[in-house]
Design a protein that fits this description.
The complex is a heterotrimer of chains A (about 325), B (about 240) and C (about 300). Chain A is mainly alpha-helical. Chain A has a single domain (about 35-235, about 245-315), classed as ABC transporter involved in vitamin B12 uptake, BtuC (Orthogonal Bundle). Chain A has helices spanning about 5-25, 30-55, 60-80, 85-105, 110-130, 135, 160-185, 185-195, 200-205, 210-235, 245-260, 265-285, 290-300, 305-315; strands at about 145, 150, 155-160, 235-240. In chain A, helix 1 (about 5-25) runs antiparallel to helix 7, helix 7 (about 160-185) crosses helix 8 and helix 11 (about 245-260) crosses helix 12 (about 265-285). Chain A is globular. In chain C, strands 1-2 form a two-stranded antiparallel ribbon. In chain C, a hairpin with a 2-residue loop joins strand 1 and strand 2 (about 145-150). Chain C is globular. The chains are: A mainly alpha (about 325), B alpha/beta (about 240), C mainly alpha (about 300). Chains in contact: A-C, B-C. The interface of A and C includes residues 58, 112, 128 and 249 of A.
Chain lengths: ~325, ~240, ~300
Amino acid sequence: MKKRSRKTYWIGFGIIVALLAMAPLVLPEFWRRFLTEILIWGLLAMSSDLLIGYTGMISFGHSAFFGLGLYGAAAALLTVNPPNLWLTIGCGLIGAAGVALFVAYFSTRLRDIYFAITTLIFSQIFYVIIFTWTDVTGGENGLTFRRPALSIPWIYSAPFTNETLHWFVLAVVTASYLILRRITQSPFGMVLQSIRENEGRTRAIGYPVERYKVVAVMLSGVFAGLAGVLYAIQNRFAAPDFVYFLVSGETVIFNVMGGIGTLVGPIVGAGFFLLLREAFSRFFTEYYLIPVGIIFIAMVIFMPQGLVGFARSWLNR
Amino acid sequence: MSAEHTPTEALVSVDNIHTYYGKSHILHGVTLHVGAGEVVGLLGRNGVGKSTTLKTIMGLARPSQGQVLVAGRSITGLPAHKLARLGIGYVPEDRRIFRFLTVMENLRTGLDRHGVTAAMKRELLDKVFTYFPVLAERRGQPGGTLSGGEQQMLAIARAMMLEPRIILLDEPTEGLMPRMVSQIRHIIGALHRDGVAILLVEQNVPLTLEASERIYIMEKGVVCHHCAASDIKVNDAVIHQYLGV
Amino acid sequence: MDAAVEILAAIPYDQIVIQTVNGIVTGMILALVASGLTLIFGIMDVVNFAHGELFMLGAYIGVVMLAATGSFWLALFCATLVVALLGAALQIVTLRPLLGRDPLTTILATFGISLVLQNYALWQFGPVARKIQEPFTGRFQLFYLEYPWYRLAIAGLSALIIGAFWLFLKYGTWGIWIRATTQDRVMAQAMGIPVPWVHTAVFAIGAGMAACSGVLFGPLVGVNHAMGLDWVLKAFIVVVVGGMGNLGGSIAAAIFISLLESYASIWVSPAQAVIVSFVVLILTLLIRPTGLFVPTSK
């Protein structure tokens, strides 16, 4: 990146983060919460972008990673008293990583469509397990639990307020974004993109493509699980609905609407989708997916590069 | 010898077409024409764009510039299936018969057309089986079980099912034994007698010079030489220059 | 020796026979659904995510037509026709523009369609399940159960439809066109076959078959807007296990998987029995990814 555009980039980045940070101070509580949710779903979508946008693997199984992060966090929050923030995060990430490893092992040797279908089926397997294993997971009714305190070990501990929760989520999502960005621009990330462009050639050059794919799936799964943990902390309940395929589907929608392969796009896509849902719910109540679905189809056909992709090409003109 | 048709009266003519394959610029402005009932040869080394020219005429490759005209009408950009129905038959190199369809079913892909009565179908089949008796023998066999030469005959027969006004033949003698090569020569003659025009792409120079009325030679994506077949001999300097034989 | 006798005595033979019949019945319906899916994939490289919703819509139209006319068979015919036309329209509007693009975009587009159709059904028909009356009641004695004739009828009817379709593919003009297009799309065009319309026709046929299955299966379960997902998942598994684009393989795989699931439901709950099909899929992907029922290439 050229010096000048790099500076503009970081300035823009700073402005956006600052705006997001100011939100809880100026917005009414409903919209504050809305924004926090956008960030959480955005993180989920961003994790999926690593696979879809950079490695060229469409995953319909992210609900499993998200869900295991959610339930992993729930486990920590229910079993340890008083609930500890970092233990919660740790448990969630381990849960998600475990699932990711499992899925990665089976799916990465498959290409394209078979990978997508297999991830879908795996997420449904986990859904069935969670749904039916009522003793452990609470089955259909899910689990409720308390929010842990915002604690920095040995230094500080206080319950989350709406503002601090928002800032915490913002910090985590921003950090995740920066980490993912660093990854995609690293040599590792370059190999992933090369796999997306031409897997055969990448393999012929000598890269162990399967191993790269497994790592990509695991990274993607871990960040998706992190989103699940944040959701647990924010909403204090877990339900099998979040492991259901629809969550995976919506994740893919966020990616496509926002812009595949842009990292920022999925967050924008999440925001766009949630705003559309908000707007259309006023008129269509729970059938908002009819107009939103039509918009999605239209975007796939006419704006496949997504909102961010479209904005970029428009600015480059 | 038939009088040379001017381009505007030609059955098929291409005018300054540029065709890309992905990012590769294959055709750099090809202009040629084939008159009704004419046999025209197209010679050139491998890779100069002969097959691409045929594909462009057939609508299987879209030119970025230039026009393809059939009987004076521009057909550039029309999809291949419409061109087949307009009377352009295509016999690709490597034949591309439908391997899992029987010989009869292969023929039916061209035979089952709108407006063809059962009597006309029988007539067409009889004609083709007369030219290619071996196809009649093997009519129930899957196309993939035929030998190379038989597959070539099937490919030509299949194109004939369309009752075309012109057949685009892409290297029909490639990989065939000499006996089959002379059979192909006879077929070209028979088609010519029937009034079907032929654009013949070939590496076999003697066959081409013998069968064609005019020839074009291509190099690097353009036509670089054009003359009557009778004006040129196999060991001509021009042939040596562009075909490196 | 005694242990062996004990084990043999413990095997629930009657249940096994009942589940065999159940498995074949469900398997035939699944085969009908999966045939459409595998055909669409084989010829157009399109993974039709909305296939389950076409199944569901067929069932709903069956409900409506049955209420309007009182005739099950008329309802079956109408549902098949309407959904086939809908399928054709969807293909023309949303899939034709995507021709030549990354095949994953068709997954996304059909996924979008499935969302719209699902919610449309929810909107029009509400969340409460509807029932389709079977066209004839009447049961026969199968061990301790009174087994409905209707179930055998749908297995037979599905077999008939698949058989008729196979004949059409083998001998009909459009059947030859479809097979030629599947083998070599480019050359099919060069032979004058209107390939874009062949694609539309195949999608329509697949949609019609799914709708037909929906109506036939309707009397067995409640018809509701979410029934599509389970079916499309199973159909995908069948298509992968049977070999993508392999019609015979899909039918064999459908029956195979349904039988396994039916047997499993003797011991575990139906909700957990679905894991069987997942396991079969995983095994297939590990051992023979091109499909368990695909003949090894010569």
